[in-house]
TrEMBL record, chain A:
It catalyses: K(+)(in) = K(+)(out). Gene3D superfamilies: 1.10.287.70, Potassium Channel Kv1.1, Chain A (3.30.710.10), Voltage-gated potassium channels. Chain C (1.20.120.350). CDD domains: BTB_POZ_KCND3. One of its GO terms (biological process) is protein homooligomerization. SMART domains: BTB. Keywords: Cell membrane, Cell projection, Ion channel, Ion transport, Membrane, Metal-binding, Phosphoprotein, Potassium, Potassium channel, Potassium transport, Signal, Transmembrane, Transmembrane helix, Transport, Voltage-gated channel, Zinc. GO terms for molecular function: A-type (transient outward) potassium channel activity; metal ion binding. One of its GO terms (cellular component) is neuronal cell body. The keyword Nucleus does not apply. It is found in: Cell membrane; Cell projection, Dendrite. The keyword Signal applies. This is Potassium voltage-gated channel subfamily D member 3 isoform X2.
Automatic annotation (TrEMBL), chain B:
It comes from Clupea harengus (Atlantic herring). GO terms for cellular component: voltage-gated potassium channel complex. The gene is LOC105900836. GO terms for biological process: regulation of potassium ion transmembrane transport. Residues 101-136, 137-172, 185-220 form the EF-hand domain. The keyword Repeat applies. PANTHER family: CALCIUM BINDING PROTEINS, KV CHANNEL-INTERACTING PROTEIN 2. This is Kv channel-interacting protein 2 isoform X2. Belongs to the recoverin family. It is found in: Cell membrane. InterPro entries: EF-hand-dom_pair (IPR011992), EF_Hand_1_Ca_BS (IPR018247), EF_hand_dom (IPR002048), Recoverin (IPR028846). Keywords: Calcium, Cell membrane, Ion channel, Ion transport, Membrane, Metal-binding, Potassium, Potassium channel, Potassium transport, Repeat, Transport, Voltage-gated channel. Pfam families: EF-hand_7 (PF13499), EF-hand_8 (PF13833).
């Protein structure tokens, strides 16, 4: 029921009194309005902008957020208002919907944002009024196309295991995927050009030996034949490969491009089969014409051609209309001209079909002048014919042009988006990496905090604590819990790969951890690791910190384990941090830099099992020495172990 | 004179026709009878009616100020021009009865509300009508109902009038009812009604017969109280 008429419900109920005297059965009991509250103003505070309306206005649509009790969740007791942390601009149209019963779509609003607002307030978009519905649907369709484009682009990801056939098909469809495909692409393009050129040059007259001029094709028969053979070979091979690699051969054979391919190479084979037989040579010549279809093979290489073809296909109805109207006009004017010119002597307008030629030439403003009206009536009608020709042709052309423009721009947009996609993906990847790096960094910081708790001063501690917001710390706690649950740790990629390589080489440590015995062993493995890690480009902050390797080993920590860790600070001159979070981590570096006198300070995570652990959990024991392992040798070969005990 | 054959004549005529069209375009040549087409589109539809003051209405009716305010707000929302014409009225009323066709009954209602017979119901008429229905005595209400049934306002209800009313009420039900609507249901209903109401069996029901019979019927008296608290 529309909003406005809800206010008339009392009237409709009152008018029901007209049924009472004629009623057969007794009436049901009327519902009582227990709340008995007067109509009151309620305040809706949307991001600071206050809207006020009657309560009954909102009650008109009880299945939306504002009309139901759901809005009580947003009630602010102190201010006695309902607070919504949403966009006030979009809220305007939402509120107007309650007031007038019509939902309008503001054109300046982004379609996705608007949809989200509507779904938040529980309003279905289908009730948008007729005035705005078309615009809404158009925008929604564009958005869906854009999303679909993105989806298709995702398919470009190479799935890891592809059969040979699929690889070839992919190489054919997207030449940019591999170098071989690109080479093949350019080679075929070159040969298409050669083939077309050959066909053209073949007919040029080059020199005359006998009385008549002979074309180049007849003069250098062998050379042209060889060129033709070579091109056809390439095309045949390409076609067969495509046929082999196509996921659905039947569909492929039906597609336009494959038909063009077949038509392009067929004449050659037919020519091979047929000899220079006189009777079939006419047909042979016709077949040669089909060789020109090779030029259409270029459409695989040129996007513009494809767009043009697509445009023509999509404007089929306009083209059909153009053709129909032209035909009508031609017939009319040809008839008129014929009868007008009938009187004059030696006229060229011998019949109506003969006049067709004149009409077409005139309407398309060609005006060859081979047929000219001589009578006055003929001239008058001829001039009307040419004027109307211009109009008839000019009418559908803008439609075709606008179609072409739209499709072309769509394509441009798709290309632009694809180009920007790389940057977008890189950004997303960096953000993700930043987040995971932040976690890894925090783990070390967290450990560092324990160290500093014991040694450092208050201010440094506060400084460290500042760098983490509550959200971050809760997030990191969550990740930490996950680690504990599974018994594995998060590491970053490079170290993971290193560990994978070294996994085989890593001998199991002895169960008795003692720092001295640790040193030697860890020196070898970890130093190897760090030596490898050092030359890595410092794109991610953790790469410079070799410590994560300590964390790669499984560690269900036994309770008595005391971990001391310090940060491996590689205070290189320039650290290119890709995300701001790693810059935060940079600060902690600098904090500790005060403690180091040297440029490169490496610290070690030394885990020392305290005496009271009765049961050395095997893994713990196993993990321990590796944990203690991080004695990192740097290029400066200055190992400073900071152990706090 | 020029020696023109048939086709040439036609050609010349065509040229002259085109020439006239061109002159028309320049406004130099006014064809006959073109002036009044402009004026038709401009309807003076912006009639705005303002009701009398809130205080006056309060005196005339038994509604409180707040109730009048609520009533007027709803009224004005749907009819910004201040009056309801029959089309709008039918439209509004049909929103409440989506299954059937309420246009006939709405027409009768409109006639009942439009006391001064000027084809539109203003807010005062509205309030006056509601005043009787919701705040009037039982007799007043019965009078109002009688007025509704008496289509030609001659003081008595004939069987045909009642049949029209009944049919319009049954139309509001629509097609999908249980039990299935028989074609003669309205007629039967009218027969029942007349049997009850028509004391002297003269085929018409006068106002006194109507009020008397209704006062005797418990159900009717009960249902008259039903919509007391609509506003």
């Amino acid at each position: 029921m529309a909003a406005g008429v809800a206010a008339w419900l009392p009237f409709a109920r009152a008018a029901a009194i007209g049924w009472m005297p004629v009623a057969n059965c007794p009436m049901p009991v009327a519902p009582r309005d227990h709340s008995k509250r007067q109509d009151e103003l309620i305040i809706l505070n949307v991001s600071g902008r206050r809207f006020q309306t009657w309560r009954t206005t909102l009650d008109r649509y009880p299945d939306t957020l504002l009309g139901s009790s759901e809005k009580e969740f947003f009630y602010n007791e102190e201010a006695k208002e309902y607070f919504f942390d949403r966009d006030p601009e979009a809220f305007r149209s939402v509120l107007n919907f309650y007031r007038t019963g019509k939902l309008h779509y503001p054109r300046a609003e982004c379609i996705q944002a608007y949809d989200e607002e509507l779904s938040f307030f529980g309003i279905i978009p289908e009730i948008i009024g007729d005035c705005c519905y078309e615009e809404y649907k158009d925008r929604k369709r564009e958005n869906a196309e854009r999303l679909q484009d993105d989806q298709e682009d995702k398919k470009d990801f190479k799935p890891p295991n592809m059969t040979f056939r699929e690889t070839i098909w992919r190489a054919f469809e997207n030449p940019h995927t591999s170098t071989m495909a690109l080479v093949f692409y350019y080679v075929t393009g070159f040969f298409i050009a050669i083939s077309v050129l050959t066909n053209v040059v073949e007919t040029v007259p080059c020199g005359s030996t006998s009385q008549k001029d002979i074309s180049c094709g007849q003069r250098y028969t062998v050379a042209f034949f060889c060129m033709d053979t070579a091109c056809v070979m390439i095309f045949t091979v390409e076609y067969l490969l495509r046929l082999f690699a196509a996921p659905s051969r039947y569909l492929f054979m039906r597609s336009v491009m494959s038909i063009i391919d077949v038509v392009a190479i067929f004449p050659y084979y037919i020519g091979l089969v047929m000899t220079d037989n006189e009777d079939v040579s006419g047909a042979f010549v016709t077949l040669r014409v089909f060789r020109v279809f090779r030029i259409f093979k270029f459409s695989r290489h040129s996007q513009g051609l494809r767009i043009l073809g697509y445009t023509l296909k999509s404007c089929a109805s306009e083209l059909g209309f153009l053709l129909f109207s032209l035909t009508m006009a031609i017939i009319i004017f040809a008839t008129v001209m014929f009868y007008a010119e009938k009187g004059s002597s030696s006229t060229k307008f011998t019949s109506i079909p003969a006049s067709f030629w004149y009409t077409i030439v005139t309407m398309t403003t060609l005006g060859y002048g081979d047929m000219v009206p001589k009578t006055i009536a003929g001239k008058i009608f001829g001039s009307i014919c040419s004027l109307s020709g211009v109009l008839v042709i000019a009418l559908p052309v803008p439609v075709i042009v606008s179609n072409f423009s739209r499709i072309y721009h769509q394509n441009q947009r798709a290309d632009k988006r694809r180009a920007q996609k790389k940057a977008r993906l890189a950004r997303i990847r960096i953000a993700k990496k930043g987040s995971s790096n932040a976690y890894l960094q925090t783990k070390r910081n967290g450990l560092l905090n324990e160290l500093l708790d014991l040694t450092a001063s208050e201010e440094e501690q506060q400084h460290l604590n500042k760098t983490k917001s509550l959200l971050e710390s809760q997030h990191h706690h969550l990740l930490h819990c996950l680690e504990k649950t599974t018994g594995h740790d998060f590491v970053d990629e490079q170290l993971f790969e290193q560990n994978c390589l070294e996994g085989a080489l890593q001998p199991y440590r002895s169960r008795t951890p003692s720092t001295s015995s640790l040193e030697g062993m860890t020196g070898t493995c970890c130093s190897r690791r760090t030596k490898r890690s050092v030359p890595l480009p410092i794109a991610n902050a953790p790469a410079s910190h070799a410590h994560p390797l300590a964390l790669t080993h499984t560690l269900p920590k036994s309770p008595g384990l005391q971990e001391l860790s310090a940060i491996n600070i590689q205070c290189a001159e320039k650290q290119i941090h890709s995300s701001s979070r790693s810059n935060l981590n940079m600060q902690t570096n600098e904090v500790d830099r005060r403690n180091c006198k040297q440029q490169k300070v490496t610290t070690a995570i030394i885990s020392i099992q305290t005496a009271n652990t009765g049961s050395p959990a095997e893994d713990g024991g196993h993990g321990l020495p590796n944990r203690g392992a991080s004695v990192v040798t740097t290029t400066s070969s200055n190992i400073i172990k900071v152990s706090a005990l | 004179m020029l020696n023109l054959d048939g086709l040439e004549m036609i050609a010349v005529l065509v040229v002259m026709g085109l020439f006239i069209k061109v002159l028309e375009q320049f406004g130099l040549f006014e064809p006959v009878g073109g002036e009044d087409s402009i004026e038709d589109d401009f309807e003076l539809s912006t009639v705005c009616h303002r009701p009398e003051g809130l205080d006056k209405l309060q005196e005339q009716s038994k509604f409180t100020k707040k109730e009048l305010q609520v009533l007027y707000r709803g009224f004005k929302n749907e009819c910004p021009s201040g009056v309801v014409n029959e089309e709008t009225f039918k439209l509004i009323y049909s929103q409440f009865f989506p299954q059937g066709d309420s246009s006939t009954y709405a027409h009768f209602l409109f006639e009942a509300f439009d006391t001064n017979k000027n084809g539109s119901v203003s807010f005062e008429d509205f309030v006056a009508g509601l005043n009787i229905i919701l705040r009037g005595s039982i007799n007043d209400r019965l009078n109002w109902a009688f007025n509704l049934y008496d289509l030609n306002k001659d003081g008595c209800i004939t069987k045909e009038e009642m049949l029209d009313i009944m049919k319009s009420i049954y139309d509001m039900m629509g097609n999908y009812t249980y039990p299935c609507m028989q074609d003669d249901a309205p007629r039967e209903h009218v027969e029942n009604f007349f049997q009850k109401m028509d004391r002297n069996k003269d085929g018409v029901v006068t106002i006194d017969e109507f009020i008397e019979s209704c006062q005797k019927d418990e159900n009717i008296m009960q249902s008259m109280q039903l919509f007391e608290n609509v506003i």
